[in-house]
Every structure is written in structure tokens, then in C-alpha cells.
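User: quick one, fold this
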Amino acid sequence: MPPGHVRRHDEVSPVTIAAVRAEDRKQTIADATHELLLEADAVPDPRHQACIDEVVLLNAPVARSIASRYRSKGVDSDDLEQVAYLGLVKAANGYRVDASTAFLSYAVPTIRGELKRYFRDCAWTIRPPRRVQEMQGNIAAAEPELIQRLGHVPTDEETAAALGTDPAEVAEAASVRGCFSTLSLDAPGAPEGGTSLIETVANAEDGYDLVEDVHTLTPAVANLGDRDKRILQLRFCNGFTQEEIGQELGVSQMQVSRLLRGILDRLRGELAGGVPKNA
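Assistant:
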């Protein structure tokens, strides 16, 4: 109010007018919704379905508002709104006009439930336990109101107090937010662009596997006798067939097969942590 200005008795605050008009509009929509639901209950199709469709159109802003609370969770806004509309349609078709509650008192929990089910069943790239999924949905629904009331992003303790749960459960659920979406490998690998993310990922190197295999096998092979080591060398280093090994050692091919099988069984046993009884 300007300095020196005295408000007359007939002046009304613009904020008060806006609030009253918003409340009047909500009541008008609520009344129209109730009348349409009463009519839908009393008439057959196609008028019945037309009334239900009008109820959905009248209350669509409510569905969009609820869906907006779940944004920034890795799911496309259009998808969230479609799920919210589905919940609204279910509410419009499932509401009983003889119920003691208003339509929105039934529709809002129905829409929220549909969104939570979507996050639980469809939106996870990596699926954590169901209790964690449901807690994450509760946090997502409560967080906007807490931010508005507290003036800052709520801590785990503040969120837990609002939800009536333990801060550790809130922290666990908050840690899985990244599970809703993953980065595309075609995304830029650096802020300035130029390369894609996949170009920054190291290629698999077969040499590491070979080094690991050698270091794993060396102690086990060291425990073999000279003949067994010779058989392994001829078979796996020189590429000899069993017949050629037999000729080299002066034994039959069947004996080579039996010896080779025994050697490999012993190596497997040692690598598994114990020597087999028949070694």
C-alpha cells in the first residue's frame, strides 16, 4: 500500500479476490462433476459414457497437478500425465454416487496409486526391492509439499518425520533414484561435445584374462610331475594330437587320453580348493 494511503472499508485485497475466485471455480467444477456422475448413474450408454468423459475432462487439471509431483524422477512428463489420466478414468468409472465421500476424495488416491504402480512396475531400469520402490514413491509425492513448507530440500530426517518412518529407509530409497533412467551411449561424452559416451568406454582387453589365467594356473601346474607337465606342453602349447603325444612318449592314444583327463581333473580340483580323491 502506498505511504499515506488509507484503505476504505469497501476495498478488498486482490489476493483475497483471487483466492475466492479459485475456490469458487473449484466448487463449480465439484458441483458439475457431481451432477454428471448422478446423471451417468441414471442413464444408459451412450449418454452414460458421455457423462463419464465430461467428468474426466473437467478434472484433468487435478490429474496433471498430481503427475507434476513425480517429475524430475527420470520419467517423461507426458508418460506421467498419461498414467495420471488413466487413474482419473478408473476413478470416474469406479466412483459410487451413493458414497459419503466427494469425488476428488476418491479420485486423488486412485490417481496417486496408479502413478506409484507405474513407478513400481514399469519405470525401473534396475529393480530394487518392492519396499524400497514404494518408499521412493512416497518420498516423490511428499517432497514438493515439504520443500514449499520448509523453504529448502528436506533432509532424510525431515522426510522421515513427515512420512512416519526411519531416516535410514529414506536414505536407502533416495539412493535408487537413478534407477529410473540410464544414460544413452550415444549421449555426449563431454560438455563441449565432439565424442559420444560410448567412445569414452574402454574396450575389453583379452590380455588381462590371459595374465589372470597364467597366474591362477602356475601354482597348480608347478605341483605336477615332469611327465604331466610334458603332456600339457605338447597338447596345449605345441598343439599335438593325442596320437602324436602317444608316439612322443611311447604310449597308446588311449593311455594319453586317460593321463590327460587325470591331469585336468587334478588341476580343476586344486583350483576349486581341494584335490579330488581319485587324483
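User: anything notable?
Assistant: Residues 52 and 92 are 6 Å apart (CA to CA).
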